[in-house]
């Protein structure tokens, strides 16, 4: 089945998981140290840290809600890390509120989602130095192809993401549509995309496999 909007955890990203967990552990340790020293910091510094933490979290939430992002995958990963740092700082401050036995336990529970795959995948990209496969489509639209391998046993495929990139602000982009094809369904290595800016439609085409499995065509509206 064609997966729309799926983000499989590829083998290359699995290789970055130990580094990601290590950096996440260092970040959490630094935040715990900040929590220990919190009341020793001057008031203006505490306020500044909280304002920056809120700004970093809101920036990431705004990007997710609006489907906008930076054109640089590594810069997007840095923004994700800053959001995680801001989130942990806010939880650390929350854990200092009374009664601390309740707020500290609640903060620890709220840290658990950080190790989920949905949040970890964007964090691993800060260690990925491979060049993105990006090509120009019709008008202000670009295509990014991202191969994936879910388990290293041959179950692989290709993510195809269509972005709208404003001509006046070329360093940001908006996710217009995406599809994912597995090599057990068709031939994703030869898949193509056609965009019709006037009709605001995008056509994903994945050719037939050599064993006779038919081609797959997916036509979706541009968002």
Provide the β-strand percentage band.
Answer: 15-25%
Distance between the termini: 22 Å
Shape: elongated
Global mean pLDDT: 88
What does the main sheet amount to? 5 strands, antiparallel
Tally of distinct domains:
2
Number of helices: 6
Structural class: alpha+beta
User: Which spans of ≥5 residues are poorly predicted at pLDDT below 50?
Assistant: none
Fraction in helix? 40-55%
| Spatial strand sequence of the major β-sheet | 1-5-4-3-2
Explained architecture:
The chain is an alpha+beta fold. It has 2 domains: 111 residues, no CATH class; 89 residues. The chain contains 6 helices and 8 strands, in the order αααβαααβββββββ. The strands form 2 sheets. Strands 1-5-4-3-2 form a 5-stranded antiparallel β-sheet. The protein has a 3-stranded antiparallel β-sheet with strand order 6-7-8, with no helix packed on it. β4 and β5 form a beta hairpin. α2 runs parallel beside α4. The longest helix has 24 residues.
What's the SSE blueprint?
Layout: H1 11-15, H2 17-37, H3 43-66, E1 68-70, H4 73-95, H5 100-111, H6 117-124, E2 133-136, E3 141-149, E4 156-164, E5 172-182, E6 192-196, E7 201-206, E8 216-221
Label this structure with key terms.
6 helices, 223 residues, 5-stranded antiparallel sheet, alpha+beta, 42% helix
């Amino acid at each position: 089945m064609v997966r729309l909007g799926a983000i499989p955890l590829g083998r290359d990203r699995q290789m970055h998981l130990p580094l990601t967990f290590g950096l996440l552990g260092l970040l959490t340790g630094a935040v715990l140290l900040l929590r220990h020293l919190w009341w020793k910091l001057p008031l203006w510094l505490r306020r500044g840290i909280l304002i920056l933490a809120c700004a970093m979290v809101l920036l990431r939430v705004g990007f997710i809600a609006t489907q906008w992002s930076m054109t640089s995958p590594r810069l997007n990963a840095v923004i994700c890390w800053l959001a995680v740092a801001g989130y942990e700082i806010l939880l650390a401050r929350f854990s200092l509120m009374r009664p601390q036995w309740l707020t500290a336990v609640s903060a620890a529970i709220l840290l658990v989602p950080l190790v989920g795959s949905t949040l970890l995948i964007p964090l691993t990209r800060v260690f990925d130095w491979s060049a993105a496969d990006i090509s120009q489509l019709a008008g202000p639209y670009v295509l990014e192809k991202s191969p994936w391998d879910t388990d290293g046993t041959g179950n692989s495929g290709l993510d195809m993401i269509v972005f709208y990139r404003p001509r006046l602000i070329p360093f940001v982009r908006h996710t217009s549509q995406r599809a994912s094809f597995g090599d057990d369904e068709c031939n994703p290595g030869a898949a193509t995309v056609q965009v019709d800016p006037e009709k605001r439609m995008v056509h994903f085409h994945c050719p037939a496999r050599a064993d006779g499995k038919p081609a797959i065509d997916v036509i979706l509206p541009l968002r």
